[in-house]
Amino acid sequence: MDIMHREDKNSPFPRIPSQAELEIFEKKHRGGPTVDEFRVDVTGKNKRSYWNRCAARIFATNYVKLPSAITQDKDVISEAFLRHIPALCQQYKAIEKAERGEKLDPDAGTRGVRRARRTKLAQRRLSAVKEEDWPLKMRENIDRLGIDGMSGDFSEYRPGGLEYVVKKLPWRSVELTHVLRALDLWHLSRRFSKKGKPTKGALPHVRTVKDKQIDHDAMPVSGLPRNFYCSSWLALQDNAYITELDIRPPIPLEIPNAIQKQIDCFQLLGKHDKASDSD
Questions:
Q1: Positive or negative CA dihedral for 14, 1, 61, 83?
Q2: Is the pLDDT score of 279 beyond 60?
Q3: Pairing mode of beta strands 161-168, 152-158
Q4: C-alpha torsion angle, residues 126, 131, 136, 141 (rounded to 10)
Q5: C-beta of residue 104 within 8 angstroms of C-beta of residue 94
Q6: The dihedral formed by the CA atoms of 189, 194, 200 and 201, expressed in degrees to the nearest 10
Q7: Left if phi > 0, otherwise alpha if psi is -120 to 50, otherwise beta: which for 101?
Q8: Which three-class secondary structure state does DSSP give residue 252?
Q9: What are the tens digits of pLDDT across the range 148-192?
Q10: Mapping DSSP to helix (H, G, I), strand (E, B) and coil, where does residue 176 land?
């Protein structure tokens, strides 16, 4: 935190860039972060803004000069810094609230529960794709997706109980989502016997997809095949950001025939309506 002149997470931030400064820097490349005035956009509106990406590169350039540097790869360091920005945003919000005399975020525990649900979702999908029927390339890239490649959800009270609503990831392609849903159904199909009875243990909860629920703060996972990313989302990104994503060549996203047949049979039984992850 030395470059930001902060002692710990409770220390105040240097003056954050205004919206006008952010826009001028992005459009006209005037101003921006420097070593002497290292400021980060921690408002949370665009965690990977052009300003923050430049700040990440400045941080990386200075980090490699330190005797304690554990790597000299500036791309890796820049990406690590960008992944740390959501934590900086949370720190900034907490400090602001404390200064206004407000209580800390009461939803912090809820966010932890949501994160745990995403972790379990990622683990189920990875467990399913590691079966030998799935192509190796698919296995490797679903593994690379990790938890950050999984859509989150939030719960709402409805007549009859809780409803879990999916927050879609704008950067993820429809084709990839189709594969992930197939993984969910295939994993679920293996939880039922041939007679249609579920095995022991809790089944995954049903998640509802609503078009307007989009997680605009979600940061994309880098190093994935091109067809894992939404083409319309990619079209909105600048060239520097596209380069940082380190996009790989596309891979086939077809579902193996043997698996598709098993999913089709499972859907005919109607069991998928009782528990599934939709997205």
A1: negative
A2: no
A3: antiparallel
A4: -10
A5: yes
A6: 10
A7: left
A8: coil
A9: 888 865 555 555 555 666 788 889 999 999 998 888 887 787 766
A10: helix
Q: Which amino acid is residue 111, in one-letter code?
A: R
Mean pLDDT of the chain: 79
How far apart CA 260 and CA 134 sit, in angstroms, is 11
DSSP states of 25-74: HHHH--S---STT-----SSS-TT-HHHHHHHHHHHHHHTTSTT-S---H
122 vs 116: CA distance, rounded Å? 10
For 40, the token pair is: 């980060």
The span from the CA of 113 to the CA of 98, in Å, is 24
Structure tokens at 176: 């990839």
Residues contacting residue 143 through CB under 8 Å, at least 6 positions apart: 126, 129
* pLDDT tens per residue, range 44-69: 778 889 999 999 999 999 888 888 88
N residues, the chain: 279
- pLDDT tens, 197-216? 666 655 555 666 666 677 77
Number of other residues whose CB lies within 10 A of the CB of residue 17: 24
Residue 95: which of 209, 8, 222 has the closest Cα?
A: 8
**Tokens 């205004």 label which residue?**
18
- pTM score, whole prediction: 0.56
Per the DSSP assignment, residues forming a β-bridge with 175 are none
One-letter identity of residue 61: T
